[in-house]
Amino acid sequence: MTLASTHTLKFEAPDRGEEAARADLYRLLAGLFYGPPAQDLLDAIAHAPAAGNGVLQQAWNDLAEACEDADAQKVRDEYESLFIGVGKPEIMLYASYYLSGFLMEKPLAALRDDLVALSLQRSESMPESEDHIAALCEVMRYLIESDDAVHNGLATQKQFFSTHLQPWAGEMCDVIMHHPQAVFYAEVARLAKEFLEVETQAFDMA
């Protein structure tokens, strides 16, 4: 399998269960962090039905509210200002940067070894390295939805999450949330942080 993030937001019946909901949220976060969303995705999030309660649901509601008045071009401008920029980006979205202080370092090499063990590789069409937050969310989505009993097992999911997401992704979210230029993506980061904290608690109890 090759890794390639998608901007597709798929809505299905709520009886698909918790695992499907987790996969859908990882898929959405992968798309939002991989690139700025199109207007139809913003509109879809804005009109997605609210359900449940708690901090994760509140974060979803806040993102949906932000999408109601969001203009795709303004969101694109914000994405490019925060994550692309001229020269060094304002905010890095790569695990190696947060774990080692530099890009393309040992954490990326270790990740690539683990991806090989999972029979995964980066798609040639994807310009970002494998330690980009979007790629890591896409791997988690794959593990949850995989037909392979080993890959979709909680042990495999927990190992990948605790090694490649948990140590740094929360810090990245904090950086985004506190950046003065982050408006739409502050809400994306808040949703991501709350979701990752729920995932951490769930894996700890597993």
UniProtKB/TrEMBL annotation:
Endpoints of the signal sequence: none
Keywords: Chaperone
Any Pfam family hit: Nitrate_red_del
SUPFAM superfamilies linked to this entry: TorD-like (SSF89155)
Domain of life: Bacteria
The protein's name in its UniProt record: Cytochrome C oxidase subunit II
Organism: Noviherbaspirillum denitrificans
